[in-house]
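User: Could you check the structure of this?
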Amino acid sequence: MTGLKMRIPTNKLQQLAIFTTLVTGGAVSTMYYLMQKKFAESDYHKLAVQKLEACTVAMESLGAPPLKVHNIRLTDRDNRVDHHTAQMKIPVSGSRTGGYLYTTSSWEPGNNRWRVKMAVLRLKEGDIMDLTSTHTDDHVNGVTQEGCS
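Assistant: Sure, the predicted structure tokens are below.
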């Protein structure tokens, strides 16, 4: 007796490949969505966006309200979070322009909360606004820096 060969019809293999691709794509999309949601709901993210919203000069420069806060790039090296420090690059835009909100927050164990240590808005045009500073109209490397308090 010769060895038995199992033949699977090509159309069944194609269906299996399509099904596997759809399931994998759905799982990856769900995971991406949940990770973005986790970042957006975190205190260090919310506090940074609140700093931006509290700065009239920055909001006017963006053309906000309405302020649009976009998803972060999960693979960007500027986005790092551990138990004590959160460093993020948050894409934002208004009706006039967009840019990135660079922020660093630290965990205060005594107060059991996050505190924004640094928040800087860098517009596409190159303007930089320090949202955690009280100085205004300083020039750094030829770029006007404005502060908010």
